[in-house]
């Protein structure tokens, strides 16, 4: 019996439903052939990454139970090649520094510059 793994996926982690819908639509339009997985918390994100290859995780910083940096550290430990983009409304120098230490590859202050997000998605997928 062959182990059939699902196709690669992009993981979106956002607790605001309206923002999640917009992110999903945008990323889906840029990623034919990739499943778009969504969750509203970091714990579920860690489970999803253990199930399949996820070249890109786009996560909000401020969420209930676990901020976006906690799963970023664990994701990078488990799958170092996964790229992580952190979205935040709490932009400051200290958070930028923490994000870098935690392995965040891309830091996106809100409002999210959509052209930058598109560039990140295309760049990551082109390298995988």
Question: C-alpha Rg, in Å?
Answer: 14 Å
CATH superfamily: Response regulator
Indicate the CATH architecture: 3-Layer(aba) Sandwich
Main β-sheet: number of strands, strand sense, barrel status? 5 strands, parallel
Overall form: globular
> N- to C-terminal separation?
27 Å
As for the number of domains, it is: 1
The CATH class is Alpha Beta
Helix/strand order? EHEHEHEHEH
CATH topology: Rossmann fold
Instruction: Give the number of DSSP strands.
Output: 5
Sheet with the most strands: spatial strand order: 2-1-3-4-5
The percent of residues in helical segments reads 40-55%
Low-confidence stretches: none
- Summed over residues and divided by their number, the pLDDT gives a mean of 89
Structural class: alpha/beta
Total of helices: 5
Strand content: 15-25%
Task: Walk me through this protein's architecture.
- The chain is an alpha/beta fold and 128 residues long.
- The chain has a single domain (9-126), classed as 3-Layer(aba) Sandwich (Rossmann fold).
- Helix content is 44%, strand content 20%.
- Strands 2-1-3-4-5 form a five-stranded parallel beta sheet, with helices on both faces.
- Helix 3 (69-78) links the parallel strand 3 and strand 4.
- The longest helix is centred in the N-terminal third of the chain and has 14 residues, at 17-30.
- The protein is globular and about 35 Å long.
- The relative contact order is 0.18.
- The mean pLDDT is 89.
